[in-house]
Amino acid sequence: MEQFEKIVGYVDDFVWGPVMLMLLVGTGIFLTVRTNFLSWKNLGYALKMTLSKEARKKGKGDGDISPFSALTTALAATIGTGNIVGVATAMALGGPGAIVWMWISACFGLTSKFSECMLSIKYREVNENGEMIGGPMFVMKKAFKHKKTGALFGWLFALFTVLASFGIGNLTQSNSISSAINETAGISAKAVGIVITVLALAIIVGGIKTISKVSSVVVPFMAVFYVVAGLVVIFGNIQNVPSGIVMIFKYAFHVKAVSGGVLGAITASMMRAMHYGVARGVFSNEAGMGSAAITASAATTDNPVRQAYINMTGTFWDTIVVCSITGLCIASSGVLGSVDAKGEIVTGSALTIAAFKTVLGDFGAWLICIGIALFAFSTILGWEYHGEKAFEYLVDTHKYNIVYRVIFSLVAYVGATTTLNLVWSISDIANALMAIPNLICLLVLSGEIAKDMKVFEKEGKRL
């Protein structure tokens, strides 16, 4: 068993290695150039639409939930522990410059997120229950000229999405909640597991409409809550902010490896910053993974391109806003590069907590605990919908969705009370593998994406 765990660990390291990261970012760069940088040029337009009153209404077109609800449900899955733990880990292992590479990957990730959402809305279907269903699996099945290849790719994507939903979307998240609450408040993992399971089941049983209603309230609240708390920490260390920003950019492009001084126990270089920044950035915003496109397919819209612009902003809110708050808190607090009692580098949630404590004291630890709990629970809700629709695609009917919902909720208890490193590694591999067919699909259909964007630019924006 130990040998098997090592093999799985090696596979996990390989699939999330340089080749996968180059494929993810490379696809974003290619799509951005091929679409004439329209995703960048229209970011202001997209943000304006997202915050408009119309986005909260089910007005023009067909769909089950409002454009804003589709975005917040997708954000529920992406704004998670990666925004708190992932950023801290990237900066501790790759140096402060890792945050710059998170920003760079997010800029190109905008187009990847736009493209997968636009195609999924364009090729969505109505199931037996009258609900909108879509996602990369439907795009592959319907848009590929070689139908057998498209069907195989779609089936593989759906399978890996279901596996990832239980692992990355559930087990790891519920474990993060129980660990954070147990360490901060001393409440037992079993008690936390029961609460998570009951709450998740109560919300999930209602389907996408209930999930979207909860997400449209919880996601904006938790994001604002965390951003405001982070700004308090940043302003509390305002005298260190200029030097912190200089440090971030200096070590993002420092070719030679450097350690010591302001870096403490950290070794920083451009390659390390690039590797950890891109890896954690992609893990956080999921651009190119195809997961957000499943939720986007449920949106009420009269034009796939219009809704795709709204969903595209998810990458902006997740990485450019929320991740940046964590990064600036850490960079301005002076705790980066510190070591714990065992002489090991402080990383993960412990590093973010240490940064918040510099201004807020022990109350800062409670804020991070609340933040992790909210972020992780919302991720469970968002990923349930992703996994459910992938499951529905595999069994070709909605009749067994309730079975999936109940099992998914019960698995949250297992995650909260058990550390399953092997399961986490396998689900991490599934998360990477679901991206491969999605990225191939985006590259194959890049001409169609560019064409639809240009048509919308001339005609759609005037409507």
TrEMBL record:
Compartment(s): Cell membrane
Protein name: Alanine or glycine:cation symporter, AGCS family
Chain ranges passing through the membrane: 14-33, 68-92, 98-115, 150-172, 184-205, 217-238, 244-266, 316-339, 359-381, 402-423, 429-450
Location (main, coarse): membrane
Matches recorded under Gene3D superfamilies: Amino acid/polyamine transporter I (1.20.1740.10)
Family: Belongs to the alanine or glycine:cation symporter (AGCS) (TC 2.A.25) family.
PANTHER family per the UniProt record, alphabetical: AGSS FAMILY TRANSPORTER, SODIUM-ALANINE (PTHR30330), TRANSCRIPTIONAL REGULATOR, LRP FAMILY (PTHR30330:SF3)
UniProtKB keywords: Cell membrane, Membrane, Symport, Transmembrane, Transmembrane helix, Transport
GO MF assignments: amino acid:sodium symporter activity
GO terms for cellular component: plasma membrane
Membrane topology: Multi-pass membrane protein
InterPro entries for the chain: Na/Ala_symport
